C-alpha cells in the first residue's frame, strides 16, 4: 500500500526505531496516533472498552509487523490498516456484536453493548474528521452497527475518513470495484437508519453545544433535583425514543411510556427521589450525569449518564447508561 508522498518525520523516526529495535522510540512515535485510532475502533465496535483493547492490539500487531513497514505509505495509514483489520478479526469471532431487534410495534433495534465515548478522549485537533460531531453522535454510531463488518469498514474509511477507493481497497486487501459496491450498499443502509439526519459526513461539522442544548440539559437536571415529573414530561417530545443500557428490553418510543417505566421501576419514588446532577458531554452530545442519595447514605452516588438528542429545545432521544464502575467516564463517583 503506497501514498504518493515523500518520507515524513514520523515515518523516518519509525523506521529508525525499527532498525534499532528500540521499543521506546517505537512507542513514542505511534502513541501520538492513539486517540484517533481509538475513535476509529469505537466506530467499528460501538463500545469504548473494546475500542481501548483493540487499539492496544493494533500497537501490538504494529510492533510484531514492524519490519514490514518500508515507508511507502504514511505511518498513520499503515496503523489505520492494522486497526481496521484487528476490528474485523474481533467481529468475526463475536456473535453478540449485531443489533438486536426490539419488541416494538415499530421495529427498532437495541445495542446492549453500546457505550458512550468520553469527549476528553477525543483527538484534540478540532479539524480532524475523526472528531466531527455528526460522525461520533450515538445515532450515527448505532446506524453504523447495522452494516455488515466489511461494509462498515469501507464506509468508515471512505465516507468518514475520506480515503480514496484505491487506498481503502489496499487496506482491506480488496479491489476498487468491490469497495465501491460495498460503499453504495452501506450508504443505502445508513439512509434507512438515519431518516431525516444529515448524510454528508464530510462537510463542515459543528462541535459546540447550542444554547438550546445547554438550556435543555439544565432544565433536565433541575426537574430531577426537584423530583418534578411534570417538568420532566414537558421537556420530552411525545415521540421520545428512550433506552437504558446495557439492560435489554428498555426501548420505548413515547415520553409517556418512558416516564411510566421509570416510575414503575422505582425512580422518583421514596429511596430514589433525592437527585443531584451535573452537565457533561459524551459523543459530543449534551448529557447529564445523575447522582442519587438513598436514605442511609450521606453522599449522592453516581447513578447514570443520560445522553440527549435535542430538537427545537425538546429531548427527542434519551439514551441512559449505567455509569457505575466506569472510571474512564472521568466523573466524580460521589457528590
TrEMBL record:
What's a BP term from Gene Ontology annotated to this protein? DNA-templated transcription initiation
Its signal peptide is none
User: Where is each RNA polymerase sigma-70 region domain found?
Assistant: 31-95
Lineage, broadest ranks = Bacteria, Bacillati, Actinomycetota, Actinomycetes, Jiangellales
Subunit comment: Interacts transiently with the RNA polymerase catalytic core formed by RpoA, RpoB, RpoC and RpoZ (2 alpha, 1 beta, 1 beta' and 1 omega subunit) to form the RNA polymerase holoenzyme that can initiate transcription.
Q: Which Pfam families match?
A: Sigma70_r2, Sigma70_r4_2
Family annotation (InterPro entries): NTF2-like_dom_sf, RNA_pol_sigma-70-like, RNA_pol_sigma-70_dom, RNA_pol_sigma-G_actinobac, RNA_pol_sigma70_ECF_CS, RNA_pol_sigma70_r2, RNA_pol_sigma70_r4_t2, RNA_pol_sigma_r2
Keywords annotated in UniProt? DNA-binding, Sigma factor, Transcription, Transcription regulation
Q: Which organism is it from?
A: Jiangella mangrovi
The entry lists its GO molecular-function terms as:
DNA binding; sigma factor activity
Q: What is this protein called?
A: RNA polymerase sigma factor
Return the similarity comment. Answer: Belongs to the sigma-70 factor family. ECF subfamily.
Keyword match Transcription regulation: yes
Q: Which residues form the RNA polymerase sigma factor 70 region 4 type domain?
A: 140-189
